[in-house]
Amino acid sequence: MESLPTPNNADVRLVEGESEKRVAFRFVGSRSEERIEQGAEKLRAFIKAQNLKPSAAMIVAGYDGPRVPPQNRRWEVMQVVE
Length: 82
Prior knowledge:
The structure is a single chain. The chain has one helix and three strands. It has about 80 residues and is of the alpha+beta class.
C-alpha cells in the first residue's frame, strides 16, 4: 500500500481488503441470462472437477463502457472458492 500513488481525487480511497481465490469464465458479446447461465454451468463443472468448494454467490462483471459495441463487450462470470 505504501508504494501506491496518492489519488488526485479526494473521493478516491485506497483500501486494503482480504485476499480471495476466484475462478472465472470469460465471454465476449451481448450480456444475456442464457450466456450467464452457460458460463455458470461451466464454472460449476470446473469447480467440481477440481474438488474446489464455492464460498460465495456467483458474480457477473462487465469491463466495457456504453460506447463499446455490444458484440465487443467483455464479461466474466466468477465464483469465489476456498
